[in-house]
Amino acid sequence: MDVQLRRVSFWVAVLAGTIALASLAITPLRGILIPATAIVAAIAALLFLRMLFSPTYRRGIETADTAMRANKASPRRAIGMRDPEWGLFGGRTGAPALIWLRAILFLGIFPAMLLQAWIGEAIWLWVAGTFVAMELSLMHIALEHA
Q: Do residues 95 and 102 make contact, with C-beta atoms less than 8 angstroms apart?
């Protein structure tokens, strides 16, 4: 069931980004932004609860945290966005499709924030899709280290 949940969640995040972008050019799509945002946010909450209440995910995240901190000179220093293992395009953070989706959605938040007055509710769908992609990456890392 977990594989199916992650697969569906990936495509939901893809659709969230696509609908948010398409709504900027296609005015009738703006009518579904709020319901779509609610659905994507509900999926983000479901993924969060799945990780929270699953001992496998919790153990995997704790193990990954230990692995991230073990290789650093200063354990308190944050991992950078350019880190080859754990950064935005890090090899341990997901499959290539998930890495690219997460990067596009995450980096798209900044221009969306600047254009928030013009794009309206599309930003909330974009952010919800970004949260789903981030949670999928956490799930991938947890399962890899469980």
A: no
Q: Give 53: exposed, middle or buried? Use CB within 10 Å, 0-12, 13-18, 19+.
A: exposed
Note whether 30 and 121 are within 8 A (CB): yes
Nearest Cα to Cα of residue 144 among 56, 45, 50: 56
CA 31 → CA 7, 76, 112, 123, distances in Å? 26, 45, 19, 14
Residues near 63 by beta carbon (within 8 Å), at least 6 away in sequence: 145, 146
Tell me, yes or no, if the pTM score tops 0.85: yes
- Residue listed under structure tokens 């990936």: 10
Per-residue model confidence as pLDDT tens digits over 39-50:
999 999 999 999
Cα of first residue to Cα of last residue in the chain, in angstroms, is 17
